[in-house]
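Hi V.,

Quick status before I head out on leave. The structure for the redesign project is tokenized and pasted below; the design run finished overnight.
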């Protein structure tokens, strides 16, 4: 495995063996509905609480992922997962039930790519043969923890986002398949002094730009080397700031850029600026983007997952919102 500061190439090949996704009813009614493996019709996912529902989402995504490969959970060497709940309880409770060696991670909504990078390192280094990576989020659980209880009925500005009720899981291994992890760049925390938790896209955009520019420069590549650059959940407002920051550095992504939070919902679904959450990028990338790679519609994709590193306490203390983004390259091999 080649490593130059924070950018790495997986010189010992790492391949996606299979993926699995599970989403809630609003996501299942969106434009990407057909790309998700399992769609719950109830936001409680047949459970008694939103927190338990999020665990059900992650378990279902894992089930879909393993079933496609006809594998049992005992075939997996390591489980790497994260979510947005306090102390990442959704992932930890799932790990308790799976009884696998477990690494819990947190980079807020950038957790999906963080788990991919960690899992890829374990496989490429030869420390593991099969590693399961997963990430999730739930609208109800996040509203209660980070914003206001839904019963409070607070009116939100147009820059606010809707947390995706969804989860994605992916199995990485050495066996050659069509989709390979080839490069990754670990982001640096950025903070432009934004304190409004209803404007997370603006807080995260600088982190997305920082890691995108860093990856392109470190690997000596251009935007034209990728069929698509996809961010995790900058949504409408953050995506425009991201484009502007890149333009200021002479980097133009028009025609090669999409955001998972924007893609997730129809405009008439009343989600304000778009989707957010660790489950946003996980479900869209492991579903819609992965399927496009398999179909040959895309050959090289730079995935930039973005995360706002705030907590309910830092918001109450009026502290600014740091943000992180991590990048990874998915390639279709003939």
């Amino acid at each position: 495995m080649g490593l130059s500061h924070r950018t790495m190439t997986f010189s010992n090949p790492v391949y996606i063996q299979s993926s699995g996704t599970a989403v809630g009813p609003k996501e299942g009614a969106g434009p990407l509905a057909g790309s998700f493996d399992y769609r719950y019709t109830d936001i409680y996912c047949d459970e008694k609480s939103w927190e338990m529902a999020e665990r059900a989402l992650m378990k279902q995504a894992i089930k879909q992922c393993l079933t496609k490969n006809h594998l049992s959970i005992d075939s997996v060497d390591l489980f790497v997962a994260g979510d947005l709940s306090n102390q990442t309880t959704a992932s930890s409770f799932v790990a308790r039930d799976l009884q696998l060696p477990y690494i819990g991670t947190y980079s807020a909504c950038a957790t999906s790519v963080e788990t991919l990078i960690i899992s890829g390192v374990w496989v490429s280094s030869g420390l593991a043969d099969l590693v399961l990576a997963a990430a999730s989020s739930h609208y109800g659980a996040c509203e209660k923890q980070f914003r206001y209880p839904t019963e409070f009925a607070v009116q939100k500005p147009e820059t606010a986002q809707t947390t995706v009720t969804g989860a994605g899981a992916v199995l990485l291994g050495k066996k050659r398949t069509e989709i390979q992890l080839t490069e990754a760049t670990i982001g640096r925390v950025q903070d432009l002094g934004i304190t409004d938790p209803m404007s997370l896209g603006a807080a995260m955009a600088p982190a997305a730009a920082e890691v995108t520019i860093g990856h392109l420069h470190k690997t000596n590549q251009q935007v034209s080397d990728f069929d698509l650059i996809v961010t995790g959940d900058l949504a409408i407002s953050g995506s425009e700031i991201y484009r502007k920051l890149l333009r200021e550095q002479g980097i133009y992504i028009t025609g090669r850029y999409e955001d998972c939070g924007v893609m997730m919902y129809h405009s008439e679904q009343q989600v304000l600026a778009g989707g957010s959450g660790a489950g946003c990028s996980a479900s869209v990338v492991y579903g819609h983007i992965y399927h496009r790679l398999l179909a040959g519609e895309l050959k090289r994709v730079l995935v930039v997952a973005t995360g706002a590193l705030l907590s309910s306490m830092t918001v109450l203390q009026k502290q600014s919102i740091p943000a992180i983004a991590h990048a990874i390259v998915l390639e279709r091999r003939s």
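Above is the designed sequence. The CA atoms of residues 31 and 283 lie 13 Å apart.

G. will cover questions while I'm gone.

Best,
W.
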